[in-house]
C-alpha cells in the first residue's frame, strides 16, 4: 500500500514517537495546520493504519492519533 508524501510524514512521525501523538503536536512538529493534518489522519484511518482517540484533559478535549496493530507493522510500498 502506498501513502501520499504528506500522509507518510504523519505516519512516520507517529510511529517514531511511540504510536500515539496529539493532533496539536503533529501540527507543531510538521509545521502544518490541523485541517491539513486531519486530512492525512483521515487517509490513514481509511486504510486501517490509525484511529482518532479523544481524551478529556482538565480544560479541553485532546484528539490523539493512535496507530492500529496493522499501522504498527506497516511498511509503505510504491505500488
Lateral arrangement of strands in the main beta sheet: 1-3-2
Number of strands: 3
Q: What's the overall geometry?
A: globular
Category from helices, strands and their pairing: alpha+beta
Distance between the termini: 6 Å
Task: Specify the helix fraction band.
Answer: 40-55%
Mean pLDDT metric: 93
Largest sheet: 3 strands, antiparallel
Query: How would you spell out the order of helices and strands?
Result: HEHHEEH
Roughly what fraction of the amino acids lie in strands? 15-25%
Number of helices: 4
**Rg for CA atoms:** 12 Å
Low-confidence runs (pLDDT<50, min 5 residues)? Answer: none
Descriptive notes:
Helix content is 48%, strand content 22%. The protein is α+β, with helices and mostly antiparallel strands. It has a three-stranded antiparallel beta sheet. Helix 1 (5-16) packs across helix 3 (34-46). The model has no long low-confidence stretch (mean pLDDT 93).
List the keywords.
about 80 residues; alpha+beta; three-stranded antiparallel beta sheet
Chain-wise SSE layout:
Layout: H1 5-16, E1 20-22, H2 23-30, H3 34-46, E2 50-56, E3 61-67, H4 69-73
Antiparallel strand pairs: 1-3, 2-3
Helix pairs in contact: 1-3
Quick take:
This protein is of the alpha+beta class and 79 residues long.
